[in-house]
Design goal:
Order of helices and strands: HEEEHEHEHHEEHH
Radius of gyration: 15 Å
Helix content: 25-40%
Number of helices: 7
Structural class: alpha/beta
Distance between the termini: 42 Å
């Protein structure tokens, strides 16, 4: 199979990648920081990711090769910027990773409800996720005691269950909630 018919030639504009992150989900994860975000949340921890097109272009093939270098990594988290601004291309990568047994999570300033009612590309990426941490970061609701979230309005959602129910379904696993 060639890169063109697997989708590996698709290009992503990224601010960077962090291997073996332990703060963007449970276990050792690869965190991929997408470039570009229209939200500009006050207090955002990644304002350098706001400008669209200012990142570096990577092919999905290059990103997959980088992820595959770490045999301990079994989870990938899409962060930002705003991953759903590159939804169609990230869905290609997420589909490949899921087929290889990786857990796929994403942070989004959009809510599940906005994404669920959104365009086809956003729904496609949503359908490839296991977990979504949704909602904008709100400085007034910031909390350092939350697992994998920055503000109290953000939810950790089980996306397969949410898609089956047609509404947001909270994740209940101890590994995501920090209740070991």
């Amino acid at each position: 199979m060639t890169a063109s018919n697997t989708g590996w030639a698709v290009m992503l504009n990224l601010a960077g990648m962090i291997p073996e992150s332990i703060v963007d989900g449970p276990g050792l994860r690869m965190t991929i920081f997408c470039q570009g975000c229209p939200r500009h949340c006050e207090g955002c921890q990644n304002p350098e990711t706001w400008e669209f097109g200012a990142g570096k272009n990577f092919s999905v093939s290059d990103v997959l090769e980088y992820i595959h270098q770490d045999p301990l990594c079994r989870g990938v988290t899409l962060s930002g910027g705003e991953p759903f601004e590159q939804a169609e291309d990230l869905a290609v990568m997420a589909r490949i990773l899921k087929s290889e047994g990786y857990e796929i999570a994403a942070y989004s300033g959009y809510t599940f409800e906005e994404l669920y009612r959104g365009d086809a590309a956003r729904k496609k990426l949503l359908s490839e996720l296991d977990i979504l941490i949704d909602g904008p970061f709100l400085l007034s609701k910031r909390s350092l005691s939350l697992n994998f979230r920055g503000s109290e309005n953000q939810r950790i959602l089980n996306i397969p269950a949410s898609l089956r129910a047609g509404k947001a379904v909270p994740e209940t696993s101890a590994r995501w909630l920090g209740k070991y």
